[in-house]
Amino acid sequence: MRSSCFVFLMAALLLLPAVASAQLQVDVDSAEFRKYPIAITSFKNIGEGEDKWGFAELSGNVMRNDLGLTGLFEVLDPKGFLEDPTKAGIDAGSIDFTNWLQVGADGLLKGGYTISDSEITAEMHVFDVALAREMLTKKYTVQRKDARALIHRLANDVVEFFTLKRSIFNTKIVAVRQINRVKQIYVMDFDGENGFVLVDNANLNLLPTWHPNGKEIYFTSYIANNPDLYRIGLSRGSKLMKVSSYRGLNVGADVSPDGSKIALTLSKDGNSEIYSISTGGSNGRRLTNAWGIDSSPSWAPDNTRLAFVSDRSGSPQIYMLDTASGATTRLTFQGTYNQSPNWSPDSEKICFSGRDEMMGYDLFIVDATTREITRLTQDQGRNEDCAWSPDGRHIVFSSDRTGEYKLWIMTADGKTQKQISYQPGSFSTPDWSPMFQEVGDEK
């Protein structure tokens, strides 16, 4: 799990009772990759229904934000457009492509929509400007309440067309939000929108993590005056279920990729060790047995290994455990305080937070095979608690670079960093959901 579990353990112990791209023609991970310049206009009302909800403005803003976050596109500023999108058409025969060549666009995205009291039907057209031809068209109908999700689906279609792989626009992020001394479990869309409080009980609620089914969230809470592990459904009003309540710590849970078991830290036997239990809380099995604190387990997507934090060598470092054989490998030797490991979806890399020689906290990636370390952040405040997106192209993290801890996302190379949480309070220990089903009936 990506949480700052090691830090939490130190404090909690004192509280206890005694791709290759078909269209971009380049590997997007290569040094030769160049962002694709694309112009995106707000969608045009092509029906008779009045747009009382501002779908035209919403469509352009959301689409530009989505494609800009990918790091694949150079999204051109609409202020430089030579065409009035409210007057121009949306099909190839009505477009003066010279106007778009002059502003530096290789691609052009246009759309139209019809709207009623209950539904929106939107169509999207993507053009190759130099060739003056249409490359992609999509059309969906959704309930009006799903207008934002509709644009996310269209953006996913664009990314899939250019890279053969859908992006993360249909995902959510769970995190801890702290207001005053209360810590809530907070859920939001990947871009920070549609946020809501899932758990708020005037207690400390910590270290949330998703079940792979995307329907449940596990977290630790002091509801019963002990750091116990709970489970709750994603829908509001879901019943809270206690999963693990051993005396002492029940923290840092991470659900296995097959959804059958949970790795977490328990201190029921005196020392803080990593255990495996069923998702219902039974069949406990001890996985580590070493001097020092073992914490923050993170399952590899191959379901056979765990990354975790241990100070058995004298300082917190990242280790890897083979769950079948029990063999343990130390992965990090640089730095004196490394924590919060989280596996990449390809089971090859682990992101983590480390303290550098200047006593600052930044984010790094360690290769699980070569142990090579890559730095992702530097000179941007304290950066902690990283978690990978399900497509492996993005990382969410917590940073205090604006003066208060907020959530940020970046591409997996550390570029294209953008703040996503602006709500009141500080945010920490985010976890990224699996992909959700997308809205809309295709036309």
Secondary structure layout plus pairing:
Elements: H1 5-15, E1 36-40, E2 44-45, H2 55-69, E3 73-75, H3 97-102, E4 107-115, E5 119-128, E6 133-143, H4 147-163, E7 172-179, E8 182-189, E9 196-199, E10 205-210, E11 216-221, E12 228-233, E13 241-244, E14 250-255, E15 261-266, E16 273-278, E17 285-286, E18 294-299, E19 305-310, E20 317-322, E21 328-330, E22 338-343, E23 349-355, E24 361-367, E25 373-375, E26 383-388, E27 394-399, E28 406-411, E29 418-419, E30 426-432, E31 441-442
Parallel strand pairs: 1-3, 1-4, 2-4
Antiparallel strand pairs: 4-5, 5-6, 6-31, 7-8, 7-30, 8-9, 10-11, 11-12, 12-13, 14-15, 15-16, 16-17, 18-19, 19-20, 20-21, 22-23, 23-24, 24-25, 26-27, 27-28, 28-29
Helix pairs in contact: 2-4
